């Protein structure tokens, strides 16, 4: 007799990356590695490879709502992970979806630009995310360039961005690694004044899908019931290992290895 699923369900609202390095495939692989079940709902389609993104199309909100509500009606969602939204309308769509999931932790990866620099949403999307979406999120995970966009501080430090953003979000993880420092500093800020810094060795090269990997891993750890600070530490360690073992399948960035080579053997 088949057993009911015992793995926590994580609803992923993200874009599709045909190269498989980022987006929903990154979410699925990272969540499998945490012992979770990913329920992926597509928010956008992109034209991209491991070098950069050249175009994208946000799906009709009715399609996204239908996907999400089908999952919610059938599966016990334990956490939600947000990736690329691409439009203000999609921000509002997510808010409507979250009304059906009171108390469920929400991890928001504010995907505004691809690793190669290409835009994945207009400037007003960042404003809408800050004003409307961050207040319902448990944790936001911007890298420093994204945090500067959200905080409207083009040259701001992580501390300055956090000061501007914490009135909007309960917890904020600003990841480093975008300068030339030899040690990467990832900083977790909480509205109650708590502050934790996690450091790791800087790895050579650039990576496609590292932010997706981190945010989905965090959603998985929260779905498993891990406390937030411990979940952040676990997710950062896992993500660093996927980058350490990354491959370069194409002509551009490295792709994190989120699953062991013998996973399907």
From TrEMBL:
Pathway: Cofactor biosynthesis; thiamine diphosphate biosynthesis. InterPro entries: HMP/HMP-P_kinase_dom, PM/HMP-P_kinase-1, Ribokinase-like. One of its GO terms (cellular component) is cytosol. GO terms for molecular function: hydroxymethylpyrimidine kinase activity; phosphomethylpyrimidine kinase activity. Signal peptide: none annotated. One of its GO terms (biological process) is thiamine diphosphate biosynthetic process. Pfam families: Phos_pyr_kin. Residues 17-253 form the Pyridoxamine kinase/Phosphomethylpyrimidine kinase domain. This is hydroxymethylpyrimidine kinase.
